[in-house]
Write a structure and sequence with these properties.
There is one protein chain. The protein has helices spanning about 5-30, 60-75, 75-105, 115-120, 125-150, 160-185, 190-225, and strands at about 35, 45, 50, 55. Helix 1 (about 5-30) runs antiparallel to helix 2 (about 60-75) and helix 3 runs antiparallel to helix 5. The protein is about 70% helix and about 5% strand. The chain has about 240 residues and is mainly alpha-helical. The strands form two sheets. A two-stranded antiparallel sheet has the order 1-4. It has a two-stranded antiparallel sheet with strand order 2-3. The two termini are about 15 Å apart.
């Protein structure tokens, strides 16, 4: 690979990392709003808990798994894990800024007063910790399972490693974060089953939808950088 190609690969890697971190941070900032998953509405329950109720934080979150799968396929596990670790730092840093902003008193003329800001952005440290623990566990598991299937299939059957890794990691993420939020009293236990099942089904649906996009992006990368079957870009960085 030429020096020009290495620079291009590194630049694309940085942009993918930026998309990953933005999706992760935003999902943590907006997760307190819940909605019914269209076309389902109120009245659908499972074990007495509302079904198809999900947090808006789930909207950008599946993108993080598509990006880590793409980075895993093209750049390798080490680069994917590096993005995950960077995302943790960015998340805690952004939460620190939000907590500091919440501590600073608003002026009498401020368009947003202290109470409104606190209700929307003053996230519980326990909720953030639960989300980050689930995130770390799920992302590292996703990358590990992805490369396990890549080895087993000798770099073939992209849809297998993409979906199998995402399904397992997304269930682990949903179960862990909802369970921790219930344990710490952030959300009531009667919402547990509904949120876990609804969140997992939604994420599986999105994972199936993003598979063609992963194929497209992998094709474009392999064509641009002339990669063979199962070959990864070595940026030597």
């Amino acid at each position: 690979m030429t020096l020009r190609d290495r620079k291009a690969a590194h630049t694309i890697y940085l942009y993918l990392g930026a998309l990953f971190i933005t999706s992760l941070v935003v999902s943590n900032l907006i997760f307190q709003k819940f909605f019914y998953w269209y076309p389902f509405g109120e009245g659908t329950t499972v074990f007495g808990a509302p079904l198809f109720v999900v947090s808006v934080g789930i909207l950008p979150y599946p993108l993080t798994f598509l990006i880590t799968d793409l980075i895993s396929e093209i750049y390798g596990a080490k680069k994917a894990n590096r993005i995950v670790t960077t995302g943790i730092f960015a998340s805690f840093f952004s939460m620190g800024i939000v907590l500091l902003a919440n501590y600073v008193p608003a002026t009498a003329t401020s368009p947003v007063n202290d109470a409104t800001f606190s209700n929307v952005f003053a996230l519980s440290p326990i909720a953030v910790l639960a989300s980050m623990m689930a995130y770390l566990l799920a992302q590292y598991v996703d990358i590990a399972i992805y490369h396990f299937w890549k080895r087993i299939t000798n770099g073939k059957l992209l849809w297998v490693r993409n979906n199998f890794s995402t399904f397992a990691s997304q269930f682990l993420d949903t179960f862990t974060v909802v369970g921790l939020l219930c344990i710490f009293g952030i959300i009531p236990w009667d919402m547990f089953y509904g949120l876990v099942i609804s969140g997992f089904i939604f994420k599986v649906f999105i994972a199936l939808l993003d598979t063609p996009f992963l194929y497209l992006f992998v094709y474009l990368f392999k064509r641009r950088f002339k990669l063979g079957e199962g070959q990864e870009i070595d940026m030597q960085v």
